[in-house]
Automatic annotation (TrEMBL):
The protein's assembly and partners: Homomultimer. Associates with the dally/ magu complex.
PANTHER family found in the cross-reference section: CALCIUM CHANNEL FLOWER HOMOLOG
Pfam families registered for this protein in UniProt: Cg6151-P (PF10233)
The encoding gene: Fwe
Entries under InterPro entries matching the protein: TVP18/Ca-channel_flower (IPR019365)
UniProt family annotation: Belongs to the calcium channel flower family.
Keyword set, alphabetical order: Calcium, Calcium channel, Calcium transport, Cell projection, Cytoplasmic vesicle, Endocytosis, Endosome, Ion channel, Ion transport, Membrane, Transmembrane, Transmembrane helix, Transport
Predominant location category: membrane
Highest rank taxon of the organism: Eukaryota
Membrane topology label: Multi-pass membrane protein
Protein name according to UniProt: Calcium channel flower
Localization per record: Cytoplasmic vesicle, Secretory vesicle, Synaptic vesicle membrane; Endosome; Presynaptic cell membrane
Length: 191
């Protein structure tokens, strides 16, 4: 058993199945979970700082700060439920989120991170706090894309496309317009 396997066994959730369900690298899974956990703590703190915008009568920054704190709380509930064990149904919600595909988590985190940018754009606390939640969404989006093909597979695919193997037999938009003609340049009009 390697050192990484021992660490992953220690970091696994109790009751979770330890079998790998996909081919996402271990470091990317830990990067998503780590950035989500640390970034949500920072987003909560910076959201509180962002709420001080009410002193300057900037209500949109107050709303952005509250949204950022709520987004940080939701991310920490999804990524590190052990931090919120005092709330009743946190583990159930976290387990439900864990069973969803990665692109669902990516869409949730990116959707939670964007509104504070639009409400309080020029605040550094918005950029750092919501930016970390946005980065977590980006990591989960990359995990949803999956593993890149090997160089041999990509070369074979490129060679097949060059040779015309696997090309569609009709124009890509032939089903949209039945009488389409190729574009051609006829030159400037004669005077």
């Amino acid at each position: 058993m390697s050192f990484a396997d021992k660490i992953s066994m220690l970091m696994d959730r109790p009751g979770g199945d330890n079998a790998q369900k996909d081919d996402v690298p271990w470091w990317m899974r830990y990067a998503g979970r780590g950035l989500g956990t640390v970034g949500s703590f920072i987003a909560i703190i910076l959201g509180l700082i962002n709420c001080t915008g009410i002193i300057l009568m900037n209500v949109s920054c107050l709303i952005a700060g509250v949204w950022q704190m709520l987004a940080g709380f939701i991310v920490i509930v999804c990524e590190a439920p052990c931090c919120c064990f005092f709330i009743d149904y946190v583990q159930t919600l976290s387990d439900r989120i864990e069973t969803r595909p990665y692109w669902n988590k990516a869409a949730l985190y990116i959707g939670l991170a964007l509104p504070p940018f639009f409400m309080c754009f020029f605040s550094v606390s918005t950029w750092l706090g919501s930016g970390m939640i946005f980065g977590t969404g980006i990591i989960y989006g990359m995990m949803a894309l999956g593993k890149k093909a090997s160089i041999d597979d990509m070369r074979t695919s490129a060679a097949n496309l060059e040779a015309g193997v696997g090309q569609p037999t009709s124009a890509p938009r032939a089903n949209l317009v039945t009488n389409e003609q190729p574009f051609s340049f006829t030159g400037p009009p004669a005077k």
